[in-house]
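Please describe what follows:
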Amino acid sequence: MEEREGELRWDGLCSRDAATRAAALDTIGQAVLRRSETIAPVAAMPPTRAADGLLVPAARDGLSEVLARLLMLSKRCPFPDVREKSEAILSEVQELGIRIPRPLGHGPSRFIPEKETIQVGNEDAVMHTLFADSFAALGRLDNVTLVMVFHPQYLESFLKTQHYLLQMDGPLPLHYRHYIGIMAAARHQCSYLVNLHVNDFLHVGGDPKWLNGLENAPQKLQNLGELNKMLAHRPWLITKEHIEQLLKTEENSWSLAELIHAVVLLTHYHSLASFTFGCGISPEIDCEGGHTFRPPSVSNYCICDITNGYHGVEEIQASPVATIPSTESLCEVEALMEKMKQLQECRDEEEASQEEMATRFEREKRESMFVCSSEDEESAPARDVSRHFEDTSYGYKDFSRHGMHVPTFRVQDYSWEDHGYSLVNRLYPDVGQLLDEKFHIAYNLTYNTMAMHKDVDTSMLRRAIWNYIHCMFGIRYDDYDYGEINQLLDRSFKVYIKTVVCTPEKTTKRMYDSFWRQFEHSEKVHVNLLLVEARMQAELLYALRAITRYMT
């Protein structure tokens, strides 16, 4: 076995057989220690001074990536033997005089305190199975999974679908799938997903030159750029002519099956970027921004603080003092439940006419244009990912700005259940079924709770959230009274929804904190699952309708 990072074999760690994992760990440990011993004398010499004035070891020579991966395994592997052995290897390396990395940040989400998330090693049997499945498929237990596991039923469906799209038999080669994931995530500057898929793209044999920019990828993938940007920002503009251009381009043409696969991947990663920003997902421990080789700074406090057990500003920020619920925010929950009750009574008493229902939809669609974030604070730091897509100025635009009118998309004319599902299943078998299951789980998921209240029917609220997102995309359900949306979703919630769905890269912790202040974090994650699936379905409806029109 070669000792360089790119050639170390990590796949044995994904095995469910303890003996296989132990053998792989021994081999990795021996390789890492041999490599460390060759540079340990260098590390022990007087260190050089880096440009930023901090002391760093004089040579690492490719070892850093291996150590970062071991750090990730010591914290995030669902198998205790791998966690313990990875930690032991790191300790041995440290004893040789080589600085080892430490994690940055606190837990899988910047928005949710680490103590309120599921800790790896403390999960129940159902969650452990999900973690083991995820680790076996991906070779990691990522932060998205650690936040989604608040809702195990949904997570299982999500992982099954994602695994099928990326790794099972399908029209597109594996490296194309990961590259399309990079293209899609980059539209929202989602460096978290871009970093993950750059690693996966290289792992399955992708050409590193493609990562220098979209213009270095094959023309066939470059041709997908236009559809990518419209799906991400203005899906209502997609026409059958756009589909025709992709299918009829001489030597670089897409087949219908390939195009369906690509469309599902693009919509999956656009919506997953929404989840990533909407839940404040932290960088993976072994990725850029997830670890550091610098020792903890002691510049902010004196040595007596250390001896007294005070560990600095970071720790205070990570463990905020629990606040007593304000009367105002407690009333917020009661008021929302009262509105739900009143709306149900109104439904039972009288039903609005079709004309009135149409008017209320148009009013809500128009009003949704004026819901925008007033946040000026910086969103999560991200490395420049614009090289993975073209036309960086192209972003979300509301429908009727600049006099442009977009016709309402009536679900009664083209729906997922009656049209989209069968088209996807016909051209990419089983995927229609997987997506349908995932949509239904997200839409119907309920624990019959609202904040501290139990035995609550939340279907009215879930439907309002789903239909508000589709309304922002111009999609109308004839049988829904859009007057309910204004009753149930307050302004701060609408700002959060619109930001996460349309411009996720602008989501801030303040927005996350400002809606539903007395609800559990698991409930806010549940909201994000609705946003993810409603957005994905909206994008799919526009793309699939255009493909259907091309075919007929």
Summary: The chain has two domains: 10-40+61-100, 127-293+328-551. Residues 521-551 form the longest helix (31 residues). Residues 1-6, 47-59, 299-324, 374-383 have pLDDT under 50 and may be disordered. Residues 127-293+328-551 form one domain.
